[in-house]
Amino acid sequence: MDQKELFALEQQCIQECAPPCTAACPVHVDVRAMLAETARGDFSAALKIYQKAVPFPNILSRICDQPCQNVCRRGEIEESIAIRALERAAVNHGELPEEKKRPMPKRSGDIAVIGGGISGLTVAYDLARKGYKITIYEAGNELGGGLWKADRDYLPAEVIREDVEVIYELGVEVDLNTLIDHIHLVELRNAFDAVYIAVGPHASENFELERDEYGVIKVDPITFETSMAGVFAGGGLLWGIEMHSSVTSISEGRRAGISIDRYLQKVSVTASRVNEGPYTSCLYTDISGISPRPLIQIGDPDFGYEWHEAIQEAKRCIQCECMECVKACEYLREFGRYPRRYVREIYNNLSIVKGTRYANTFINSCSLCGLCAEICPENLDMGAVTLKARQTMVVQNRMPASAHDFGLRDMQFSNSDKFLMVRNAPGATTSDYVLFPGCQLSASSPEHVERVYGDLRGQLPDNRVGLMLGCCGAPANWAGRPDLFESILSAWHTHLQAMGNPKVILPCSSCYQVFQKHLPDVEIISLWDFFDEHGLPTEATSANRTVSIHDPCSTRYESHLQDSIRRILRRLGYQIEELPRSRERTTCCSYGGMMWLANPNLAEKVVQKRIQEGEADYVTYCAMCRDNFAGQGKRTWHILDLIYNQGSDEHGSQRGPTYSQRHENRARLKRHLLTEIWGETMDGSQPYESIRLSIAEDVQAKLEQRLILVEDIQRVIEYAERTRRRLLNRQTGHYLAYYKPTTVTYWVEYMPAEDGFTIFNAYSHRMEVPGSGPS
Amino acid sequence: MSEQEQVWMCDNCNIPLQPDKVDVAYMGNAFPVELLKCPNCGLVFIPEDLALGKMVEVEKQLEDK
Ligand code: SF4
Ligand code: SF4
Ligand code: SF4
Ligand SMILES: [Zn+2]
Question: How far is residue A116's CA from residue A699's CA, in Å, rounded to a whole number?
């Protein structure tokens, strides 16, 4: 990921866009944060937020024309939030801390401000605080300008005087009763380094500056520069009406102030000045679930909200934000932030030269399921981002060895002689069809694979259906190993060519996804589409039962496949209660992306969340989804269970096989099919494979959790018994031996038994210690 | 250690294990660790809590480095 890609991704996530209220506010009050503080009853914090954007809070909170309200999302449900009234409540009930006497910055430059209305006062306020020397020329006998024309009931004189006092406190020089005409302007321009004109709508005729066809002084709409260098103008004079909008006048003063500052600092006046005035928010907020809450009425209109009323009103704020993907994805929620932040963290993680890479676990925990991309209003696909990050980590040689090792070795097993097998039907030299059941269905339900193969041979011309056993290579892809992935794919390609390019029949949707995306010239059909088209192989009894369907995440955009499953289920007599999130919004069972391996705790949460989403029993059509759900107590059938009349409660509740049994099941499936159908025998088993173990159930559970396979233990024992390199516990008589077949060192505590060995414990580590064997 | 010292012995050499500095390595980093070891053939003993505790911790630290 380079910087450009990072920025593009950051842009794509709009979570940090200002909410509509703030975007529409000409001075961009952080309304959402202010209301959050108010809702908590912290009016002082609310006031602090308000005052940060508004130089004269007491004045503006009474007369703001609140353009924010028109776009408040609460207004789409009933009445918008009473934003100005809550700002006034902050002023009334909050207290600002004594401003710390920090040393004032001293910027050098003399600035003349013509007009003491709210716009001129803002420029004076902002620039005086930067250390410039300011002189205000006011035609009237008091500061305030157009404010004095406001309704005194709303804006009493003492409020104006009190708020404006700060100008004097900042050391601004004020020349009252001083009318400036053009001669003066030219003189002022010469005497001062910059001039701001904010004389209101009616007093601007004097100045000889370029004007538009309506006679209004022409200014640059972004910088407020006039036709005379160093002279800026803003406020009511641009609008030609009295009291048009105080908040706009403040905003223009503030923006002109930025220009004047830059002009005097001799830096670009125009550079990167986006969204300084009001704009349309880019934030997305789903308000569909928000229930109505009526507007809180103000008890005493002269005073405004009492504090308890204000709290209630502030609680109506939706606190607009996007977070759509985070709400939907347990993984994105788990790490506490959102994609805009995540992509930055990933970028940093990939760029670190020295130091700890904190995002490794994050990057490897994603299930790559694509739900975020489907849900995100901007279609940001975090799965694609984390997958790419994994690939980069592998190339940088920074991928933690432990992250995917177990999964890759499992894949290696499936593509070794133990399971790999490619055959045309007995006697045939080519095939029209080939069944590719994949590694996981073969591991979970080898008996179903045999039945399906038999049935396909019944449904299609007998000797035209071949069989191909192995793993499609998905784990290599998930592990960020395109090299390994490519080599597996090309092996499948070669095998298929040798078989005469048969159509591949796929029960597993992960395989389906791999073939479809990465072997585009191979003709494929999902087994479910096949059954839907050709009819079911069995005569099913009508079940008359309600189930919910969990669509595997790899079928997200395969609606034909989802439809076939639903039709098959109905044909089998099931009523379907759709889960709230299904089809293109379905979730991952935690198998995808090897999340279960990189982050087992998260995987458990993911499964828990999914199995609580529906009351009815689940049906799915991926072996891993089935085993993951059933493993945590949700009755779940694989569609093949139902097709083959095994829809009993017990069957649906049965846990899947252990990792060792999964290997065993695959190996046995191959052996059995070879003998039964092709009349061949398998040869070449390793000496350790014949070692018989007796393992108590609690020890077995421990092994499963520690990812230690029976074959790992067999290897240790074979080595220890052959070399006598083992420790003896004098108290228990148990042996303890260790051995490192490839990358992991396994320790096994055991004792010889009658026709094998009893296993008491096993554990492993990756650190290398002396004496762990020859490899 | 002392209790385990008495409990575990090297079966092949038929002598008790003794504490000794052993080099443990991961991802190109090696550090000496005090472990029980057969003084004759060098077979070592890593207890379960060390393997699943401190060792995993250090493995992760090195992997994230
Ligand atoms: S200052 Fe005005 S426009 Fe801005 S948030 Fe407050 S009421 Fe709305
Ligand atoms: S609901 Fe709250 S955050 Fe959303 S637009 Fe309205 S005031 Fe702003
Ligand atoms: S859905 Fe997620 S990634 Fe997309 S904009 Fe919202 S927070 Fe950002
Ligand atoms: Zn020894």
Answer: 84
Residue B34 one-letter amino acid: E
State in Å: Cα B39 to ligand 2 middle.
Answer: 74
Q: Which ligand is nearest to the CA of B15?
A: 4
Q: Is residue A753 within a helix (H) or strand (E), and if so which, with residue range?
A: strand A745-753
pLDDT tens for each residue of A475-523: 999 999 999 999 999 999 999 999 999 999 999 999 999 999 999 999 9
Q: How far is CA A140 from CA A128, A144, A204, in A?
A: 22, 9, 15
**Left if phi > 0, otherwise alpha if psi is -120 to 50, otherwise beta: which for A565?**
alpha
Cβ(A14) – ligand 3 distance below 6 Å: yes
Rounded CA Rg of chain B: 13
Cβ proximity of A519 and A493 under 8 Å: yes
Q: Which residue of B has its CA nearest to A362?
A: B64
Ligand 2 lining (C-beta closer than 6 Å): A 19-21, 31-32, 35, 72-74, 81, 83, 317-320
Domain extent, residue B58, equals 3-64
Q: What is the CA radius of gyration of chain A?
A: 37
Q: How many CA atoms lie within 13 A of A514 on its CB side?
A: 27
pLDDT at A386 over 80: yes
Residue A62 Cβ < 6 Å to ligand 1: no
Per-residue model confidence as pLDDT tens digits over A294-305: 999 999 988 999
CA dihedral over A409, A413, A415, A417, signed as positive or negative: positive
In tens, the pLDDT along A107-162 reads 899 999 999 999 999 999 999 999 999 999 999 999 998 899 888 888 999 999 99
Distance CA A6, CA A341 (A): 11
A522/A515 Cα distance (integer angstroms) = 7
Q: In chain A, which among 373-412 make CB contacts under 8 A with chain B?
A: 400-403
Pairs of residues, one from chain A and one from chain B, whose beta carbons lie less than 8 Å apart: 88
User: Global pTM?
Assistant: 0.89
Please give the distance, rounded to the nearest whole angstrom, from the Cα atom of residue A729 to the centre of ligand 4: 14
Q: For the sheet containing A574-576, what is the strand order?
A: A574-576, A545-550, A617-620, A636-638
Q: Does A729 contact B at CB distance below 8 Å?
A: yes
When divided into structural domains, chain B yields a total of 1
We report the CATH number of the domain holding residue B41 as 3.10.20
Residue type present at position A432: D
Strands A110-114 and A133-137 turn out to be parallel
Report CA A735 to chain centroid distance, whole Å: 49
Determine how β-strand A756-765 pairs with β-strand A745-753. Answer: antiparallel
Ligand 3 nearest atom to the CA of residue A376, by list position = 1
Nearest to A414 by CA among A159, A188, A669, A167: A669
pLDDT of A102 > 90? The answer is: no
Helix H, strand E, coil C: the string for A588-620 is: CCCCHHHHHHHCHHHHHHHHHHHHCCCCCEEEE
In chain A, the domains with their CATH numbers are: 18-98+303-314 (1.10.1060.10), 110-265 (3.50.50.60), 327-399 (no CATH), 413-534 (3.40.50), 545-656 (3.40.50), 690-765 (3.30.2310)
* Measured distance CA(A429)–CA(A398) in Å, rounded: 46
Grouping H, G, I as helix, E, B as strand and the rest as coil, residue A15 is coil
Pocket test for ligand 2, best of A295, A317, A319 (most atoms within 8 A of CB): A317
